[in-house]
Amino acid sequence: MTDTLVIYYSFTGNSKKVANYVKDKLNADILELEPQIPFSSDYDEVVAEWQNNDIKRDVEIKKVDKDLSKYKKIVLITCTWWYGISPVMKKFLKEYDLSNKDIIIASSNAGWLGHCFKDYETLLPNSNIKGELDLVFSSNEHERDKMLTSKSDIDNWIKKLN
User: Fold this and answer.
1) 152: Cβ–Cβ under 8 A, 6 or more apart, which residues?
2) Structural domain harbouring 56
3) Secondary structure of 29-48 in the HEC alphabet?
4) Which of 32, 94, 135, 141 is the most buried (most CB within 10 A)?
5) How many helices (H) and strands (E) does the chain have?
């Protein structure tokens, strides 16, 4: 059994790719966070509803099917929504206690990280955040799934968890 869990939310699939890479590198378990009611696949609808995404605004999420107490090390990966972490990750961090866990955090974006790391710190006051990673993907409309952050940067970030 592993003592490491990768927890992620991915709207476009970019965070999911990185989460699976990290899971494989660490031989970790993985947990995908999901909203109770899926967001629209129409980007403009999502923008209209979530553009003013502040840390107090909630979305309901599906129940977590992992016993978080079994894990000592946690990897958190989510996408950036209007300069902050996704509402799905925010809700998870408000509802589930990760106190006294070693944690590394990442937020995927197209070059606009905003206050994501501050959001994580605010929502993880009793956790040991050991490393942050700005996961940058292309902002070119036809290459949005092209990761600009190198795999060696990801590997170095992963090492901070040990």
Assistant:
1) none
2) 4-159
3) EEEECCECCCCCCCHHHHHH
4) 135
5) 5, 6
Domains held by the chain: number = 1
DSSP label at 50?
H
Sign of CA dihedral 23, 29, 35, 37: positive
Token couple for 27? 């031989």
Residues 77-132: tens digit of each pLDDT: 998 887 889 999 999 999 999 999 999 999 998 878 889 999 999 999 999 999 99
pTM: 0.91
CB 132 within 8 A of CB 104: yes
Residue 27 or residue 56, greater confidence: 27
Residue of 106, 95, 97 lying closest to 125 (CA atoms): 97
Say how far apart CA 121 and CA 114 lie, in whole Å. Answer: 13
CATH number, residue 74 = 3.40.50.360
